[in-house]
Amino acid sequence: MALRPGKQMGTETEIKLRVNDVKGFRLALKRLGARSVFGGTGRVHEWNILFDTREKELAKRGQLLRIRTETPERLTSKRSKPKTERVLLTFKRPMTAARALARAFHRERHKVREEIELQVLDGGALARIFEGLGMRGWFRYEKFRTTFRLPKSRRWARGLLIELDETPIGTFVELEGPPQAIDRAARELGFSKGDYIVANYLGLYLQECRRRGEKAGDMLFQKRK
Questions:
Q1: pTM
Q2: Which of 98, 102, 113, 148 is most buried, by CB atoms within 10 Å?
Q3: Per-residue pLDDT tens for 136-166?
Q4: How far is 193 from 177, CA to CA, in rounded Å?
Q5: Which string of b and e fits 153-181 if b means at least 16 CB within 10 Å?
């Protein structure tokens, strides 16, 4: 079951926006005709583990290696099908200097990275392989994501994903797709370019821990035993 539309290899262009009024945001989505991609509630739980060497060599190069397990929310209906998980391996890195320069004029306010993503059968086995290569899972975070698309009649939104994320540090929306579609969707949803966030969830979590005066750990809804 495909829980998240995406690319196996390519370029990711996105921004985040903090959603302070979730009810108002959902009303704005409804006005635009947005529909959940996955049917039902469309809500998917994501469990993420970031891997790196003990010397944080990937982080020093601005790279990310992640195993993500996606589990759709169970419907309340007795006829609902059992949960189906999908495990994704994702590698992200900064764009090469030449490509970044060529795109900078049009995408200076967006986060643009090269991304390789593929589905794997056994996330636990993959994690053990990484550990055998000297890596470790050093940061874990979870969230609930609901992915929306706009109707085909809104041609400007072709290729755009609207991803509403409920996280332990608040609610955000990620807009991913063509830069022009991202900018227009943000305006239609009541945001300005000054609201754009290009930090990842690790960075946002560390900022929130500093603000609260708390020690950083994993970004979870509740501590797991």
A1: 0.86
A2: 148
A3: 999 999 999 999 999 999 999 999 999 999 9
A4: 16
A5: ebeebeebbbbbbbbebebbbbbbbbbeb
